[in-house]
Amino acid sequence: MNILGIESSCDDTSAAVLTENGVRSNVIASQSVHIKFGGVVPELASRAHQKTISHTVEQALQEANTGIEDIDLIAVTQGPGLMGSLLVGLCFAKGLSLSRNIPIVGVNHMDAHIYANFIDHTPEFPFVALTVSGGHTQLVLVKAPFDHEILGKTRDDAAGEAFDKIGKIMGLEYPAGPIMDRLSKEGDPKFHRFPQAMANEGLDFSFSGLKTSALYYLQDKEESWLESHRNDVCASISHAITEVLIKKLKRAVKQTGVKSIAIAGGVSANSMLRAKAGKLADSLGLHLYIPKLSYCTDNAAMIAITGKLKAESGTYDDLAMKPFASL
Length: 327
Ligand code: KG4
Ligand code: ZN
Fold this sequence. Notes:
By secondary structure, the chain is α/β, with parallel strands linked by helices. The chain has helices at 42-63, 83-100, 109-115, 159-169, 176-184, 208-219, 223-256, 271-284, 301-312, and strands at 3-7, 12-19, 22-30, 73-79, 104-108, 127-132, 137-144, 147-153, 260-264, 287-289. Helix 1 (42-63) runs parallel beside helix 2 and helix 4 packs parallel to helix 6 (208-219).
């Protein structure tokens, strides 16, 4: 089965082709229009998707050395995400489906982050997935394909949002997460002890207190001080966020008794988190699954693989399918 994946839930327009031989293309057009606003502006995001989607899909087909006539299934993000952004991808996919008579399947974007782990591996069920992105932070017990139980989630900000908002306070460009990751490598994670909210209770998360704490800590610091300690502050923030994530992941493993864990979503690209997840897996004798970097942040290859798994279980959609911003 040749699958065309289409993703447009936030500020990346992406199209990918997945065949029996694996991912043949995974084109990602990131939108730079949001940088000067320090965050995603929904109206601008949908306009930018509208401009690039046709070309992005064409490029994915070309790079895969295939034509639309070779596509057997279209998998498209149905939610969660920004309504205007979702509509662009979904309407484009429906148009293709209708005009070329290709079956279509809608994909949950957060499911897709988890199933990105199935592109290069075959994780055994059950496993616990830590899904950490710009909009979500969840611990999910994945019992069987598409049989999920959310064990815990954030009560306020998502982990990626915490990176981005604290980075913004520090004057870093949006999205600050990858920049903070890079700067952290040269810094001291023990330089300042930031709060690790709810680290030792339950499986829910809270990151808004960390953001406030960073704001208070940084507000009276001179520019010259920040210049010389930027890397240390980034490393200390990264330490606080990743410690909470790993402590909760460990508690979820103890609670469920699973033998495998996965991390997924944009923040799973974080080097400190990847290293700590590796150590946790080693110490508890667990299998660890982490998508390769290009499948961590938003991409259409993860939509295509999830569509494939859904189709294999006999699930398809039709043209009445609607986008759901809070799916
Ligand atoms: O999954 P994703 O691409 O989009 C959403 O579904 O939200 O995640 C984007 C988030 C952003 O907050 C970004 O700053 C964060 O993932 N991120 C990182 C890293 N790469 C992306 N955060 C920390 N370290 C990274 N290396
Ligand atoms: Zn995402």
